[in-house]
Amino acid sequence: MGINQKTNVIRILESRGIPHEVFEYSVEDGQLDAISVARKVGFDPDIVFKTLVTMGKSTGINVFVIPGNCGLDLKKGAEAAEDKHIEMLKSKDLLPLTGYIHGGCSPIGMKKEYPAFLEEMAAQYEYIVISAGKIGLQVKICPEDLISLTGANYADLV
């Protein structure tokens, strides 16, 4: 990995001494969905998690980290966020609010700390794989380290 590939996510993990591994993958084929990314980095799709950002009616921005082969249940997400209604954030709003673009969004190192929720099934894994903050890069991290770093709570989200 070249020095120009060191994202804010990787810098944060290094500065905090959090064990992690970085995986680079090709984006040339345009297949950027989590299942394709899992195949490219050589991990089971169950442990490659995606980061979704929502806007709540009363809570504002919420961050959800779920297995890439699942969809966010908006009712469960709203319940976890203690909101009556949430909806997916529009792609155009993602960069200004989080500092990340669609396909390269990580729960680590957003512009502001937003309430975050990690799908509870992550607790059964020794590690999960999430975006390293840039399309083409993933990082392997212990779920407990992700929880302590982001202040996320486990929740039933899918």
Mean pLDDT: 95
Shape: globular
Q: What structural category characterises the helix and strand content?
A: alpha/beta
What's the helix count? 5
Largest sheet: 5 strands, mixed
Q: CATH superfamily, please?
A: YbaK/aminoacyl-tRNA synthetase-associated domain
Low-confidence stretches: none
Strand content: 25-35%
Indicate the topology.
Elements lengths: L7 H8 L5 E4 L9 H8 L7 E8 L3 E8 L6 H8 L4 E3 L2 H8 L17 E4 L8 E7 L2 E5 L1 H8 L2 E3 L3
Parallel strand pairs: 3-5, 5-8
Antiparallel strand pairs: 1-7, 2-3, 2-4, 6-7
Characteristic key phrases:
globular; alpha/beta; 5-stranded mixed β-sheet; 158 residues; YbaK protein; 5 helices; 3-stranded antiparallel β-sheet; 25% helix
Concise overview:
It contains 5 helices and 8 strands, in the order αβαββαβαβββαβ. It has helices spanning 8-15, 34-41, 74-81, 91-98, 143-150, and strands spanning 21-24, 49-56, 60-67, 86-88, 116-119, 128-134, 137-141, 153-155.
Structural write-up:
With 158 residues, the protein is of the alpha/beta class. It has a single domain (3-155), classed as YbaK/aminoacyl-tRNA synthetase-associated domain (YbaK protein, Alpha-Beta Complex), CATH 3.90.960.10. 25% of the residues lie in helices and 27% in strands. It is built from five helices and eight strands, in the order αβαββαβαβββαβ. The chain has a five-stranded mixed sheet with strand order 4-2-3-5-8. A hairpin with a 2-residue loop joins strand 6 and strand 7. It is globular, with a radius of gyration of 14 Å. The model has no long low-confidence stretch (mean pLDDT 95).
